Give the backbone structure.
Amino acid sequence: MSGRLAVPALDYEDRLIQFAASCRHDPLRFVLAAYPWGERGGPLERHSGPDKWQAEVLGHVRDNIGMGRPLRIAIAGGVGPGKSALMAWIVNWGMTTCVDTRCRITAATGPQLSTATWPEMIKWLRMSLWGHWFEAGERRIRSVDPAHRESWRCDAITWDEHRPEAFAGFHNSGRRIIYGFDESAAIADSIFRESEGILAGSEDTEIVWLVLGNPTRSNSMFRTLFAGGKHAHLWKAWHIDTRQARMSDKTQIAEWINSYGIDSDFVRVRVLSQFPRVGSTQFIANDLVEQAMDQQGEYDVTLYDRVSNVARFSDDASVIRLRRGRRTLPIVKLRGMDTMQVAARVAELNEMCRPDAIFVDAGGPGAGVVDRCLYLKLPVTGIDFGSRPDGDMWSANSGIRYYNKRAEMFGRLRDWLAAGAMLKEDKELATELTSIEYGYGMRDGRDSILLEKKDDIKCISCISKNLI
């Protein structure tokens, strides 16, 4: 049986207005009435209403809204429990039941906002009994009433860490303000701090700040909102166990637990919705690098055919590293050189060392180096860090799935270090290797290791069986 409000046709709008007013402080009642739960042939035919955890959050809003203090709600959820749907419901309830409500929505990235978060907002608005009260645009929902088009609205806005002013607080005295952050673990700290301005509203303003996301980073502002974090006392927080969530893919969850183990950080983040252990987001451990730089003795070339070398780029330094098996020679660092000069230096080293292979980062300015080296008939292979990883995206040694070539190459580097690689002592290199952090991204419908972006170091790698 549908949970929709039954309204006689003759006084349809009057009844809608009356019912919306009665739900001003009851989002759960609103959600149960607004959408076509259980309607045969409808999009929610198999659903009788919100999931248990969603109803609990809506009940918390009901019990605390209008009490003269802002509501700060943080939800850590893995894959598929319905976090974005909940945010859409709260925004829809907030706008429908309070004239001139103002909402702002953002997400971790512009593409995330435009292709995932915002479409979810529009989908639930269009299913609502009150959807015709609003018009939806590419980045905006606003009242169809000409007198309230600018004052009764929801805006989707992207953020810039270095220009957080767009998230400065604004006043809506006597009305309602709702902020929604999606995939919040990747939203910059400066955006959180600037957004706190909304909390300075007058006591008669109803304020809801809803922060959602996958708990992928232990060093994020998002993490501080939960138990053990310095801001936890200000927030009501939930960790959603996706094994219990109605909408999650139970087959996929069982596969992850079987593959990674219930106590792995992968399962902690994606299934149990717990943050990784402190420091566990460091991709290459300090002891691996220290061990490699402390190695002494004879050098072995047996790893030659199994190791992919690392190539990285930045604006201020090009780096050339030569390797023989487990042994790497001191690196050559080039500064202030254009692509032609870098290619010339590679040609000189090729003539001196006669390497079997040269790998150059083909992204950005590296493409020019690759083209010039190919013109000079050097044994160069261009590497695109953003391209697909090799094979089935699994590391032969560790059983880890990688998101792209960059993650795969660093993964193989980590395997190489663990197998006994030898590095010349280099503090700058050690810092670069151990500062890399990782999270997870979806590729081909599967979760894969995705490295945090860093300012890349230009590197050209040369592999040879003959280097001394």
Summary: The radius of gyration is 27 Å. DSSP finds 13 helices and 16 strands in the chain.
